[in-house]
Amino acid sequence: MNITAARTGRDLVLRLYGELDHHAAKEAMTEIDRHLDVALPLRTELDLSGVTFMDSSGIAVILRLYKRMQNLGGSMKVTRVPPQAMRVLRAASIGNVVTIEKGEARQ
């Protein structure tokens, strides 16, 4: 799992690449927390276009980011979700809690 970050003012875009499974989730959470601590964003976009596989551990990563953004007084959204990851998110009804923008994953 690789994560890149891009900041513009108080906006932060986090792009995830690779498999987001139970092996990668803890590392992803630590890396995301590090970026949040540095940027202190008001808005964060979690771009999943580079995720090749996601299991329920990915839900924990998303919900942790959601909670962190609430604590910062900010907002977040999940974007560019690949079809396999979208099936996981729909099964867990994450869209009832977190904004998921429709749009195609980049290839």
Q: Notable features of this structure?
A:
107 residues, alpha/beta, five-stranded mixed sheet, 3 helices, 5 strands
Would you mind describing this structure in some detail?
This protein has 107 residues and is of the alpha/beta class. It is built from three helices and five strands; from the N terminus they run E-E-H-E-H-E-H-E. It has helices spanning 22-39, 56-71, 83-91, and strands at 2-8, 11-20, 43-54, 75-79, 99-100. The protein has a five-stranded mixed sheet. The two termini are 17 Å apart. 28% of the residues are buried. The model has no long low-confidence stretch (mean pLDDT 95).
How many helical stretches?
Answer: 3
Task: Please report the total strand number as a whole number.
Answer: 5
> Which percent range describes the beta-strand content?
25-35%
Report low-confidence residues grouped into runs of 5 or more: none
Assembly state of the chains shown: single chain
Share of helix among residues? 40-55%
Largest sheet geometry = 5 strands, mixed
Series of secondary-structure elements, N-terminal to C-terminal: EEHEHEHE
Class per helix and strand makeup = alpha/beta
Compute the gyration radius: what is it?
12 Å
In whole angstroms, the N-to-C terminal distance is: 17 Å
Shape: globular
> Which strands sit side by side, in order, in the main sheet?
1-2-3-4-5
The average pLDDT is: 95
Chain-wise SSE layout:
Layout: E1 2-8, E2 11-20, H1 22-39, E3 43-54, H2 56-71, E4 75-79, H3 83-91, E5 99-100
Parallel strand pairs: 2-3, 3-4, 4-5
Antiparallel strand pairs: 1-2
Helix pairs in contact: 1-2
